[in-house]
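>> received
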Amino acid sequence: MYSIKDLERLTGIKAHTIRIWEKRYSIIEPDRTDTNIRTYCDEDVKKLLNVAVLNKHGLRISKLAELSDQELREKVVSLNVGLNTSSVQIEHLIISMIDLDEIKFESVLNRSIIKNGFEETVKTLLFPFFDRVGVLWQTGSINPAQEHFVSNLVRQKLFVATDRIVPESNSKAPTFVFFLHEQELHEIGLLFYHYIAKKWGMKTIYLGQIVPFKDLKQVYEKIKPKYLFSSFTSSMEEGWIKKYLKELSATFSDIKIFASGYQISNISKLPENIIPVRNIEVFKEEIKKILSETDL
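>> returned
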């Protein structure tokens, strides 16, 4: 069951416009609660997503209203742009997520990877898609099972892509340790940055989710890495994050610590040895500096 606000978040169509389409064209016909509040089902969401895609590509609502659900789906599939624009692709990924349709989700991803390459697909398709997913999940528009479904499919892609990289045997290459703190579970971003570091010839140790601080210190003492990398995505109190970053900075004061994720963007002043990674290009520039400094 979805509210009209849920539909607005899922489709990007304003609630006011949805009401007009309902009243004037009967695009969808919602149920109503005993208190006369509109409610919608999965089929309504999928139909409205298809209508939104076609409307964005110049088809008039009055014409779309005359088509059956099957005809709408066929028109979306037959669009000349196919799945070549990120907006269309994101709509398809959302529908796949709602339906828990692995085949469709994989198809959209694989087409983009073939056309644009893996790294570009992650930057221009998956990151914007997960931005949408994050908003939908936090507002209750999708359930955790749907979010876990797509996250695990993407995690598999990232593991496979990283595994295909043939590491260079270079003794001068510095070591990165990638980890998430004990209350952080969102590792898609961390996996991608790990992929980039490995692709650029860095030595990497991937610890993944829920790493206790004492265990991180033990790893540091054992391998003496040049850099740490972590991500802060989950909603946390700003005071807790600042305290954790301060402890991280003080404990590993002799090395640089890269920090990415939505929560980092909200903190104006970071400890001196913590480098905020706002996007992939920032991290690439940092790696270029490292490469020039180490004469690799």
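>> The first strand starts at residue 31 and ends at 32.
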